[in-house]
């Protein structure tokens, strides 16, 4: 059953086998697996329930309803997260990428992660892909924007391909980040969560978990607030007592909850080791109309400059075709005022390439005096170098595809009409707040590892110090898990559910 604030008249008290905080990529998998295995499950989800009739294709409405947007403490980086039932999959671009084998090998070698070999994980990836109905985008489905990336990179001899995605009967309308109005995107709202509900899970929406408490070394209850859906102010208290508590609130919020709860942080690493896969955008104007907002928005990638090995995992950068609606595109354009207006008037003729850079842990989440997260991130020199190289390569690809002008997302307009002008990128550099840097794939703040001194959770994602407390979301990756992390998070969550069920006596006692 989905329980909304309208039905709540006083403090909420629940007792369950499993309490899950967050209903996104990780939380929805655990909810389904545990409920289907016969356990009582309560999910607390801070966001609201949005479904097909709510998705009105208006970025103004949908961003406000379903997103969390935050800046780093120096305002140099913009972070996008979901704030809705179903989490990231409801608003994401539906690209489904498996973790490269070398990343799993590296985790075993460098962090002592057990039982997570590519062979072991393969069945969990298969399961998640079957539920999400993943399929490869066909060449005929590339829109003009993604075609530009493909044509430009292919003509330069660069490697690339179309994505696998969780879409079925897609009508190619282009509104994926604002909720799919056709239920073509196979989000958690169409598979994992309905299965969890059918198996008896209770899903509280507009229910924010604030703290997790321990007793005798075991997690035992979650306390939080039922929020007014409009004002987001506290309407009632909520308390859930559970034998197993699963934190699945995403990288920023899971760290926030651990820090506010003052538990599970004996290593001092909760909130530390943040990686963000910084993105920037390179746009271009073409003579002909491309109408890049039509069609599947993010369908082709060029991974010529991406490397993966067993020492550091993923490094370098990749280019992706990514386009969206005018409000968001305008935030990526150089300059302000009349210049920006003039560029936006040529929106139909624009193409956009996303530069996704692989970084190493360089940031952290701490709390301000109100217990809210503060994100700081100091971009490493190697990451700046990779970002500049990525912008250069994006410009080369765009010119190769026939662009007249290439625009970089600097505050001071940086527009070139010829490759000979590319040195402007080194002149501008990557200075904080001087250009658009965005993150969609934050990871690492509750990293897993074998050593309690250098990690927050163990190889099965249970806290090293608080028994029966699991962190199962993007925060557990000690290095970037893949170019897009939804599928990997789901596969890892399937494995953790399997582990809890296999060890049921340990977690639920002999009566289960
Ligand atoms: C615009 C966008 C596009 C993306 N595109 C892709 C893509 O194409 N492919 C891909 O693989 N990845 C993509 N991602 C990333 C991916 O969606 C996320 O990394 C992934 O969903 C993270 O999974 P998670 O379980 O850690 O958190 P989420 O899926 O974010 O779920 C966390 C849930 O917890 C809830 N929550 C937070 N705090 C609390 C609290 N205190 N109490 C209760 N509930 C709470 C949130 O509201 C949310 O529903 C994209 C992300 C964004 C923002
Ligand atoms: S492009 Fe396809 S998946 Fe995306 S919103 Fe439109 S119909 Fe849904």
Biggest sheet architecture? 8 strands, mixed
Shape: globular
Instruction: State the fourth-level CATH superfamily of the largest domain.
Output: FAD/NAD(P)-binding domain
- Overall tally of domains: 2
Please report which band the strand proportion falls in: under 5%, 5-15%, 15-25%, 25-35%, 35-45% or over 45%: 15-25%
Q: What's the total number of strands?
A: 23
What CATH architecture of the largest domain do you see?
Answer: 3-Layer(bba) Sandwich
Oligomerization: single chain
The name of the CATH topology of the largest domain is FAD/NAD(P)-binding domain
Helix tally equals 14
Q: How much is the average pLDDT?
A: 96
* Distinct small molecules bound, one entry per kind: flavin-adenine dinucleotide, iron/sulfur cluster
The CATH C-level name of the largest domain is: Alpha Beta
Helix share of residues? 25-40%
Unreliable stretches (pLDDT < 50, length at least 5) are: none
Tell me the structural class: alpha/beta
C-alpha termini separation: 23 Å
- How large is the radius of gyration? 22 Å
